[in-house]
Amino acid sequence: MKKQQGFTLIELMIVVAVIGVLSAIAIPQYQKYVAKAEGAAALSTLTGLKTNAEAFTVENGTFPKTANYAEVGTPSSALGVISYPDTAADGSGKILFTFTSTKVSPLNSSVKIALKRDTSGTWSCVSTAAADSGITPKGCDEGQKP
Asked: Could you give the 3-state DSSP secondary structure of residue 35?
């Protein structure tokens, strides 16, 4: 009797098939995980600016505009662009984070996250990410216009 050495072709094909199935499941989940982490980083950046915007509003009586970057202390981000659109004289406004399409996950390429301040000083978070995407940071309302 001869001692068997090595693997048969069938055994190798089964291993390749198992690896293919696992990678077909793992890669999309990893991309979703990366997109969710990028969203959390954007929200973290915006949350840090909330205090600066609140102080600016108290001192000047109006919500900051994009032109007030230096006064508010707005940091730059490799993931996207931070702006202050739709500023009102009554102290309401929003801080908007728009993901750049080249440096982020494809799932985040057109997503915007915003922190909105109403006239009473209450902040809320909204995101344009689809409601069923699962990439919106916790505490943000999904599928809304920021």
From this structure: helix
Q: Which amino acid is at 55?
A: A
Its domain, for residue 23, covers 9-141
Residues 39-94 have pLDDT tens digits of 899 899 888 888 888 888 888 888 888 777 777 777 777 888 888 887 777 778 88
| Domain membership flag for residue 4 | no
Q: How many CA atoms lie within 13 A of 7 on its CB side?
A: 8
Q: Which pTM does this prediction carry? A: 0.78
Q: Which structure tokens are listed for 60?
A: 């000047």
Give me the CATH number covering residue 28.
3.30.700.10
Tokens representing residue 79 in the block? 């993931």
pLDDT confidence of residue 18: 96
Residue 75 falls inside a structural domain: yes
Q: Which is nearest to 98 in space by CA: 120, 79, 72? A: 79
The continuous run of DSSP H or E covering 11 comes out as helix 9-60
Gap between the Cα atoms of 122 and 125, Å rounded: 10
- Total domains in the chain come to 1
116: left (phi over 0), alpha (psi -120 to 50) or beta: beta
Tell me, yes or no, whether 109 lies in a domain.
yes
